[in-house]
Amino acid sequence: MEVAVRTHVGMKRRINEDRTGIFTREGGRFMLAVVADGMGGHKSGDTASRMAVEGFGEEFVRADLTNLKTDDGRSIWLADVTERLNRDLLEHARFNEECRGMGTTIEAAVIAGEEVTLCHIGDSRTYRLGSEGFEQVTKDHSLVSLLVDSGEITEEEARIHPKRNFIIKALGTDESVEPDIIPLRLPEGSALLLCSDGLSNKLGENEMAETVAGKGTATERADSLVDLANERGGEDNISVILIDNGVREADAG
């Protein structure tokens, strides 16, 4: 299994408010991948995403691995950690004036072999490439997503909507937050792509699929995704975690 992690400030921003992290246990038998996109101003956005990724990592390192061997166990663990970190971010903001209003999106995937359990909050995304094609497995917690669901705007209109970056759920902004917990499989010949909206706002799904399934190592393909987003303007920070369970081998066969 190949893993690549990339984060880039983009072409317009001076500070990268995205954070990424990969944490492993038992020689990689258990893995946690996290992407967080902070918000609330330069200092507070960076603080929120850093606290979230570091917090997930610290919890993972001391987690009872018995609880991470089943989907139910991983789901409960992710929900519990999310609740604790939400309280931590709120408390930090209360005692630090410069961090008032901070929050962050979260994509946190616990991977145990071919089994994956995903925790999703906000408008960062997770995609999966497999035998059935390339699919977005998360649903944005955003205003435009609600408008699309209600039929008020189309998917095409959502991409250019003036409030397309307005999210309705984040970690650290409300007293409680309920993440989407999504069980997935990552069989041989498939891949997961976790990313911030700095990537998904610039690349269509076909472009992402072609790059993820394309030539090169996982690191080279992750670099290509970031480069493409920057070539399109790179107005936002861009973060990518690519977890490849033999996509290239399957394609070569």
CATH H-tier superfamily: PPM-type phosphatase domain
Number of helices: 8
Total E-strand runs = 11
Number of domains: 1
Give the amount of beta strand, in percent. 25-35%
Biggest beta sheet attributes = 6 strands, antiparallel
User: N-to-C SSE series?
Assistant: EEEHHEEEEEHHEEHHHEH
Catalogue the unreliable spans. Answer: none
Report the CATH topology name.
Answer: Phosphatase 2c, domain 1
State the CATH class. Alpha Beta
Per the principal axes of the C-alpha atoms, what is the gross shape?
globular
Rounded radius of gyration (Å): 17 Å
Task: Give the name of the CATH architecture.
Answer: 4-Layer Sandwich
Structural class: alpha+beta
Cα(first) to Cα(last) distance is 17 Å
Helix content: 25-40%
Instruction: Summarize model confidence as the mean pLDDT.
Output: 93
Overview of the molecule:
This protein is of the alpha+beta class. It has one domain (2-252): PPM-type phosphatase domain (Phosphatase 2c, domain 1), CATH 3.60.40. The chain contains eight helices and eleven strands. The chain has helices at 42-61, 71-95, 143-149, 155-160, 197-200, 205-212, 218-231, 247-252; strands at residues 2-8, 18-25, 30-39, 103-104, 106-112, 115-121, 125-130, 133-136, 180-185, 190-195, 238-245. The strands form two sheets. Strands 2, 3, 4, 5, 6 and 9 form a six-stranded antiparallel beta sheet that branches. A five-stranded antiparallel beta sheet has the order 1-11-10-7-8. The protein is globular. The model has no long low-confidence stretch (mean pLDDT 93). It comes from Bhargavaea beijingensis. This is Protein phosphatase. InterPro entries: PPM-type-like_dom_sf, PPM-type_phosphatase-like_dom.
